[in-house]
Amino acid sequence: MHSAFTHSGVSMSVGGIGPETHFPTGWRSPVEAELGPGGLGAGRLKSKNVAETPDRPPAANHQKQLSFPTCLHPNCMSAVQIREISLNFGDVSVLRELDLTVQEGEYLVVLGASGCGKTSLLRMVAGLLSPTSGRIFFGDRDVTSLPPRERDVAFVPQQDGLYPHLTIAESIATGIRENLSRRERGDRVRQAAARVGLESLLERLPHQLSGGQLRRAALAKALARQATVRLLDEPLSAIDSHLRFQIEDDLRQLHQASPGVTLHVTHDGQEALRLADRIAVIEDGRVVQVDRPDAVLRQPSSLGVAAALGASPLHTVRVVRQGGEWQAADGVSVSGPQAAEGTTATLAYYHGDVRDSDEVAAVDSGDWREPDSGRVVAANDLRWFIG
Question: Molecular function (GO) terms listed (predicted)?
Answer without folding.
Answer: ABC-type ferric iron transporter activity; ATP binding; ATP hydrolysis activity
